[in-house]
Give the backbone structure.
Amino acid sequence: MPSVLGQPLYKQLVAYFKEKIEAGEWAVGEQIPSERELCKQFDVSRITVRQAIAEAEKEGLLQAVQGKGTFVAKPKIRQELQQITSFKETMTMWGMVPRTKVIRIDTEPADLAIASVLGIMEGEPVIHLELAGYGDQLPMVYYHSTFSHRVGMLLAEEAKRLEAAEEGFSTFDLYERAGLEKPGMVKQTYEVSVASAEIGRLLEIPEGQPLFRVTSIFSSGTEQPLEFRTAYYRGDKYKFYITRRL
């Protein structure tokens, strides 16, 4: 096991897991040694082993399956920031079967903040559409989008049709299918966040687990706001990157 002066034993175990995976000695989907075997091999307590496995899960290295054991997880999904890639394309590219579930469709009057973002009058009805995107039956991302009433109703109906067909999609995929102009511009901010109890329940992760929170304002080619969206991506499943020319 790697030994770094002053580093806790569980951190050394995590480094050992990482070495095994990166060297190809533990393949994706392969079950790792049991807690008892690891305790015996490294002469450490079960608490230390469990702490190491939990940390490795947070880093996306391992995945525990209830009643079966702990397995090497698939590599994190690497998503390019310079271009918009649909949820379905992303999942398919990484060898996963995509599916999207409609969590909620709701109507309410726009408050001042939402009205300002969407360029409508305060009090006008808006549609909230909440989706959960799955890869291989595992929830990967939660979307909460808000639209003007006309746009939202059309997209919500299309979302229900695609859900019934068990297809994978995000709101970005709905516009053209609903007969609307596809967004031509998006302004986004990326932040590190942690899962609330509700988000954790939807994404099947513990409360407090790291997330990427991506806030987007989608607009038409003429810069007419179409959608305000907040997306929560599992930090143990995604990494975002950008390539810049110098």
User: Anything to note?
Assistant: The radius of gyration is 21 Å. Strands lie at 62-65, 69-72, 77-80, 98-109, 125-135, 138-148, 185-194, 210-219, 225-234, 238-241. DSSP finds eight helices and ten strands in the chain. The first strand starts at residue 62 and ends at 65.
